[in-house]
Amino acid sequence: MLNALFKRHSAPLVVFVQRPMTIKSDADLNIQMKLFNDKKQFKKTLELFDEHKEKYIGTLSSFTITQALKACAQIGDLQSGSTIHRHISSRLSNDHYILASLIHLYMQCSDVARAESLFGMSKKKRKQCYVDNNLPEKAIDLFNEIEYPDDVNRIILFNACAQLKTKEALDLVKKTSKQIPKSFYSNPRLLTSLLDALMKCGDVAHAESLFYSSKQKVLPMYGAIMKGINRLNIYDNVELVMSQRFISF
C-alpha cells in the first residue's frame, strides 16, 4: 500500500502556463478589448491595454483609448484613467470621442471638478465647430448654457451673431457686451469680434463709439470697422442705382 501511495505522489507534475495573448495589429487589439468589455471583464481589458500602452501609446487608435477608459469607468479605476489622461492629453483638442470618454470616467468616479473642466473644453470646441459650419444658432444655444463665460466663449458668440445679422442677434451682442468687465476690453481679439458683430448687425454708432474710445487699437479692429462701412456703402449704392432705374422707367 505504501508503494502504491508513493507511486501516486511521485507522478510527474504537469504545470499549465498561460501564454500571453498574441496581438498582431491594432484591429486585433481593438476587437479583443471590446470582447472583454462586452463580457464585463474590465480588468482583462486594462491588463491587455497595459501590455501595449508603454510601447504604442503615441499611436494607439481612439477606439483603443476609449475602450480602456470605458473599463476604468466601469470598475471605478480613477488612477489608471488619470494615467491614460496624462499620456494622451495632447490629443484632446482634436478628438471628441476620447474627451467624452474622459468626462464620463471622471463623473463615474465623482471627480466632478475635472469632468466640468473637460466639459468646458468640449463646449468651446463644439461652439467653434457650429460657427465654422454656418450653424450660429446652435453656438448661441450652447453659450446660453454657460454660467460663467470667458473671453473665448464671448468671441465665438459675437462671431455667431455676426453671421446671423438679425435684430435678435444684435440684442444679444449688446446684452453680453454690457456684462463684460471693463478690464476685459483690453483684449483686442474680443474687441475686434464685438466691433465686427455690431457692424454686421447694423449698430454702426455703437461700434464707432467703442472703436474711438479704445486706447489700444490693432489692425483687425480697423479692418472690422472699414469692412462694415464698406458693406454699408455698397448697400447704399445698390439702393441708389435701383431707385434711379425705377425713376428712368
UniProtKB/TrEMBL annotation:
It comes from Rotaria socialis. This is Pentatricopeptide repeat-containing protein. Signal peptide: none annotated. GO terms for biological process: RNA modification. GO terms for molecular function: RNA binding. It holds the Pfam family PPR. It comes from the Eukaryota.
